[in-house]
Amino acid sequence: MKILDRYILTTYLKTFISVFVILMLIFILQTIWLYIKELAGKDLDIMVIVKFLVYFMPKLIPLVLPLTILLASIMVFGSFAENYEFAAMKSTGISLQRAMTGLSVFIVILAVITFFFSNNVIPWAELNSHNLRRNIAKLKPAMVIAEGQFNEIGTYNIKVEEKIGERDLKDVTIHIKGKNGRKNATTIKSKTGKLVSSEESEVIKLILFDGHFYNDVSRKRIKDRNKNPFVKSSFEKKIINIDLSTLNNVDFDEQTKTDNYNMLNVSGLNKTIDSLTKKSKSNYEALSISLHQRANLKNKIKQKSRKKDSVYSAAILDLFTTKKKTELVDAAFRAVTNSKQFIHTKKSSIQTSKAWLNRHIISLHQKYALGFACIILFFVGAPLGALIRKGGIGLPMVIAILLFLTYHFIGIFATNSAKTGDFNPILASWFSTLVMLPLGIFLTKRATADRGLFEFGGVIEPLKRAFNIKEKNTVDYKFLYNYNNEELVDVVNNYQALGHEKISRHEAIKVLKSRGITTKQFQDVGIAIDQNFETSEAIKNNYKDHAVFAIVLYSIGIVLLILFFVFKNNKLLPLSMASIELSIVSLVLFIVYFIKSFINASQFYNHINKEHKKPKLIILLLGLPLYMITYIFLNEKIKEDLKLNCLESLK
Question: How far apart are CA 273 and CA 360, in angstroms?
Answer without folding.
Answer: 6
